[in-house]
Amino acid sequence: MALIELHSDTLESIIAPDRIVIVDFWAPWCGPCRHFARVFETAAAAYPDIDFVKVNTEERWDLAAEAGIRSVPTLMILRERVLVYRQTGAHSESQLTSVISTTRSLNMSEVRAHVAHSFSQDE
């Protein structure tokens, strides 16, 4: 899958259990968002095995609120339905490539164990 502009779907409906999903929360009035759009589109073309999703926070304020977005652009990366990365601010092409590489190299069994341990600590 390539670039997805999320309109009527919910984000949950496109997060596949066996895929990496990169979500760009953006707004039309945001200069850094427009600059990052080129980087995001280039990466989407370069990594066809990853789902790249754009969420216009002006149109989908409900999703932005649900995700706790307070500033744009905000990039979120999910792997196997687990949030593994969240960062506000535009990324350069090399930064995005590095984050994708790191995401691919994650041992998801260890990540899930860490998440489970973190939740048990909170109780």
From TrEMBL:
One annotated Gene Ontology cellular component of this protein: cytosol
An annotated Gene Ontology molecular function: protein-disulfide reductase activity
Alphabetized Pfam families for the sequence: Thioredoxin (PF00085)
SUPFAM superfamilies tied to this protein: Thioredoxin-like
Domain spans labelled Thioredoxin: 1-105
InterPro entries found in the cross-reference section: Thioredoxin-like_sf, Thioredoxin_CS, Thioredoxin_domain
Keywords: Disulfide bond, Redox-active center
Domain of life, source organism: Bacteria
Protein name (record): Thioredoxin family protein
Organism of provenance: Paraburkholderia azotifigens
